[in-house]
Design goal:
Elements lengths: L1 H16 L9 H8 L5 H12 L1 H19 L3 H24 L21 H20 L9 H17 L5 H22 L19 H4 L4
Length: about 220
């Protein structure tokens, strides 16, 4: 609740006490809308889908099934489920309180049920794809696990750009989502401790007990 209160307070501060163009809240959506093209618009829909409810649910379920099958542990599943449920609840509460209008440009998505602040797509993408990187880096071995940092950074950025491109969010909506995601990811990771090395006893799986799929390093 402290995190929700902080993000809601930030939203109230931005919408009611800024000059209206903080971080380009007016100019950037207008610039992006003016530079829409037949080549970019379909890609914006692709990345919007990756951050949308259906896309996030599918990736979350797949992640939980894979980690349960490979590690035989429920903690990664609980981590993903708690993280995404908390993200959704916080987003709905904050959007209902702040009630920020969408940017004054043509919108490519229609009949959206929530307000502009914060960006739910961006928050969901940040939480999920960074959480996957946290789990893979914590459970796997070998240099290739660090490659998961690339989608953890790239996908939330692309989702955020797609939402602004489609006229649905201001830059500060994205900022609020990133701040919330960072706080919520940190809290959930510290509380749930989803990786073997995070346990209080500090033990990791020995090579003999570690699942082969996670211990194998490509040659």
């Amino acid at each position: 609740m402290l995190i929700v209160g902080a993000i809601t307070g930030l939203g109230e501060l931005i919408t009611k006490h800024s000059n209206g163009n903080l971080l380009g809240d007016r100019t950037i959506p207008r610039w992006l809308a003016a530079h829409r093209s037949p080549g970019l618009t379909p890609w914006s829909e692709v990345f919007t889908t990756l951050g949308g409810t259906v896309g996030i649910l599918i990736v979350s379920l797949a992640t939980g099934v894979v980690f349960l099958a490979v590690t035989r542990r429920w903690r990664p599943v609980v981590f993903i489920a708690t993280l995404m449920a908390g993200e959704l609840g916080a987003f709905l509460i904050t959007a209902a309180v702040v009630k920020r209008p969408r940017p004054d440009v043509t919108h490519l998505d229609h009949h959206l049920p929530t307000s502009a602040y914060p960006s739910g797509h961006t928050a969901a993408a940040c939480c999920l794809y960074v959480a996957i990187a946290i789990l893979v880096i914590g459970h796997a071995r070998g240099w290739c696990r660090w490659l998961f940092l690339i989608p953890a950074v790239a996908l939330p950025v692309l989702v955020a750009l797609s939402r602004m491109y489609r006229g649905e969010h201001h830059p500060t909506d994205v900022l609020g989502s990133v701040v919330f995601s960072a706080l919520w990811l940190t809290a959930a990771t510290l509380l749930i401790k989803p990786n073997p090395g995070d346990r209080a006893d500090g033990r990791r799986l020995s090579p003999a007990r570690r699942p082969a799929a996670l211990s194998r390093t490509p040659t």
